Automatic annotation (TrEMBL):
Belongs to the MTFP1 family. It comes from Euphydryas editha (Edith's checkerspot). It holds the Pfam family MTP18. GO terms for biological process: mitochondrial fission. This is Mitochondrial fission process protein 1.
Length: 151
């Protein structure tokens, strides 16, 4: 892929901004909920920036309102699912169940170290969930939105 073809929002370090809410969810046990919500704000800012980028590119290439709207919808739905909604939920559940397991089954760990272990498990799981979630959302989009919009 040439430098000109590289997607700034999906193929560079900027993609990690979409995972800000997963980091926030990982730290939920240790930080005020306002910080977790702020991490969602950063992730949604990334989603909107990528959506705007895709919309502008199709507008410059094609200019037809229908195609711009379809591309905008595609980018917004894909990014919301793949970067915010599904990963945030998954990390939240991983951290919740890790914390519960440690509290109920490993009773010799005090609360503060238990919270840090929960954070570590959440952070460590991020690289393992992203690929499968991105792939699954792409398949879902291909079977639903993208198919419906072609007809």
């Amino acid at each position: 892929m040439s430098e000109q073809e590289k997607d700034f929002f999906r193929n560079t370090w900027v993609r990690y901004l979409g995972y800000a809410n997963e980091v926030g969810e990982s730290f939920r046990a240790l930080v005020p909920v306002k910080l977790v919500r702020a991490s969602y704000g950063l992730a949604f800012a990334y989603v909107l920036a990528d959506t705007g980028d895709k919309s502008l590119k199709i507008y410059k290439k094609d200019g037809r309102a229908k195609n711009v709207i379809l591309e905008t919808g595609d980018a917004l739905i894909w990014q919301t699912l793949a970067s915010v909604a599904i990963p945030g939920f998954v990390i939240n559940r991983i951290c919740k169940y890790t914390g519960q397991y440690l509290k109920n089954n490993v009773t010799k760990i005090p609360p503060t170290p238990r919270s840090w272990i929960t954070v570590a498990v959440g952070l460590a799981s991020i690289p393992f969930i992203i690929g499968p979630i991105d792939f699954s959302v792409t398949v879902l989009m291909n079977l639903t939105y993208r198919r419906w919009m072609k007809s």
